[in-house]
C-alpha cells in the first residue's frame, strides 16, 4: 500500500455458517490489502422470555450462558482466521435484525466496503422471508460485496 492511500475499513458480516466463512475466505484471498482495518459484525437475537419470572429460572440462565459461549467461540474462530493476516479485527456483536445491524455498524465504523455471504435461497423463499444481503444492498450507501455459496461444497 503506498503512503498516499488511505486505510480501508472493511466490514465483514459473520455468523457460524459456512456461507459466512466462505465470504471471509474470499475477502482474504481476493480483496485483502496490507493496512486494511477489519470490522467483523455479528448480529444476535436472544429472545427474552415473555414472562419476567421466567428470566430467573435455571433454564433461562443456561440459555444465556450457552449463547454467551457461542459468541465467545465465534470471536475466537475469527480472531484465529485474522492471525495470518497479522491484523487485529474489531469484532462487534449487537442484538437486532441482521440487516439493520450490519448497515448501522458499517456506517458507524466508516466502512468503505461490506462483505457478506449469501445462502442462495430460492426466489419464493427470498420473496416471502426477505434476505439479509438484499436488505443490506438496498439500505446502505456503502458498496456491498456478496459472495455466493459454492454450489459443490454446500447443501
From TrEMBL:
It holds the Pfam family Usp. It comes from the Eukaryota. Transmembrane segments: none annotated. InterPro entries: Rossmann-like_a/b/a_fold, Universal_stress_UspA, UspA. Residues 8-148 form the UspA domain. Signal peptide: none annotated. This is UspA domain-containing protein. It comes from Porites evermanni.
